Amino acid sequence: MRCLLGVDVSTTGVKALLMDERGSVRAAVTTLHELSTPRPLWSEQNPEDWWSGTCTSIREALREANVSAEEVVAVGLTGQMHGLTLLGKRDAILRPAILWNDQRTGSQCDRIRRDFGRQRLIEVTGNDALAGFTLPKLLWVEENEPGIYSEIEHVLLPKDYVRLRLTGDYATDRAGASGTSMLDIRSRDWSSDVLSAFSIPKAWLPKTHEGPEFTGEVSTEAAKVTGLKGGTPVVAGAGDQAAQAVGVGAVSPGIAALTLGTSGVVFASTDEPIVEARGRLHAYCHAVPHRWHMMGVMLSAGGSLRWLRDAFFPDMSFDALTDGVDDVSVGCDGLVFLPYLTGERTPHPDPLARGAFVGLTVRHERQHVVRAVLEGVSFGLRDGFELLRLAGLPGMREVRVSGGGMGSAVWRRILAEVLGVTLYGVDATEGAALGAALLAGVGARVWESVDAACAAAVHKTVKTVPTRDANGSYNEIYKLYKTLYPALKELTHDLYKWEQMHHTAAD
Of residues 240, 319, 383, 451, which has the active-site annotation? Predict the structure, then answer.
C-alpha cells in the first residue's frame, strides 16, 4: 500500500506522520527540541536541531508503522511560519533562527510602514508590518548585526531549511511565504516593490510553489540519515496554519477552522484575495492552489493556560487544573483575564501588549482564575471571528476545531457559548502534519485535488452546541473585555520602557 509522509517543524518539536492511501494514520512520532529566550522579547532556535529532529522522527515513524522506504511515495512539509533562517556560503548557518513569536522588531516595523507606506503594504502583502514576520527580522539583523547581514546568501523559513537538507533545493510554499511581508498575495510570488524598497536581493529568496507541487526529491545523503528512499518526491507543503486547515478540511469557503494550540487561530478560506483594510487580519495565499484565506492570530491561547499551570500549579495535570470550573458561573464573579502574555497580533498588532487579571478579589479561588483564563482566551478568539465578519467573508456554515485545548470539554463549551456558534471536532487529530501528508498525496496523484483528499480523510465527530442564555451573558462580558486593552495600553508600554531601562542599567 502506498504511504505518505508529513513532516511538521513546530516550535516545540518535529513530528513525522505516516498515513496510507485510505487516509489512515499509521504512525506519528515527535522529537522535541529546545527554545532559547536569551533576552526579553527574544525567541530563537538552532536550525540544526530541526534537521536532527526530522531524521529521528522519520526513522522512528517508519519503524513504528512497519513501513518500508519503498512504500513512501511522497513527502509533504509544514512548520512554524515567519521564522528567519540565514545561510551563508556553503549553506552555513549564520546565527540562531529568529522565530515567529520573537517581538524585538518594533522599530523595524515602524521603518517598513514609514518607507513603504502602511496602507500600500497591506494592499500588496495582505498584512500590516508585524513584529513576528520575516522582513522586520531581516531588517533587524541589517541594523544590529551588519557583519552577519553582509554574509547572507539565502533566507529560508524553518521548514524550508529542512527541505534544503532533505533535497538540496531552495524552495518554499506560497502560504508560508505570505507570512514574510515580502510576497504579493495577488500574483502569488515575491513582491519586487517590497524587495526593491529595502534593497533585498531576490536571489536570497527561494522559488515559490503551490502546496501540492513537487519541489525536489530526497537526496542520497538525506536518504541515509532519514531511512527514506533516495528520489522520493517532496511537495511544497504549507505554513502550519494553512496545513492545519487542510488537516481539518477547511479548504473551501463556508468552512472555518479554529485552532487552539500554544497560539490561537481563526481561519476562513476565500476564492479571491480579500484584504482587511486596517490590516487587523492576515490575508494569505492558501495551500490550495488559487485559493486564499483570512486569519486572525492570538499569540497566547493554550499558552496562557500552560503558563498558569506551570507558574502556579506545576504539580497538577490539566484535567485536575480545570476540575471545578463548571461550578463557577459565567463571568467568574467579576474576574476577567486579558491573554496578551507575549504581545498580540489580532486585533491589536502590539508586541508590547501585556496580560492582566482585572477584578481580582479575595473571593476568587483557583477555579475562578482558571475559568477566567479559559474565558479570556475565548474572548480573544471571538475578536478574530468578529473581524472576519466585518471584512465581508461569505457566511461560515460550520466551524471545525482542533488543537490541544480542544481536548477539554469545558473549554469547547465555553468557546461555543462565547462565539455563539456550533463547533465540530474532526477525526483527524494530527493537524498540520496530516495536512502536509494530504498535500503530498495530491502531488503523488493519490487524490485528484485537495478537496478530494480532505473528503476522503477528514470527517466530523463531536458536536458542541451553545446555550442561548450563556451566549447572552457572554455578550455582556465581551463588551467589557474589549475596553481593557485601550484602558491598559499606555500603562503596559510605560512598563516596557521601565523594564528596558532597568535591563540596560543591569548590563
Answer: 240
